Amino acid sequence: MDEKASTTIGFFCRARAFLAAHGITELVRVVTDSGTNYRAQPFTATITSLASHN
């Protein structure tokens, strides 16, 4: 299984688009395990840049 940060980012973006297409436009929290792909700087930067700041 490919568990690279780039693959994880792609999955997250596709999942976000899928949810948005079904009317879920606000994600409050992203919960992951502590795998290296989730701790990688590119993944955390992507999540941070897509975060809704209230």
TrEMBL record:
UniProt protein name: Integrase catalytic domain-containing protein
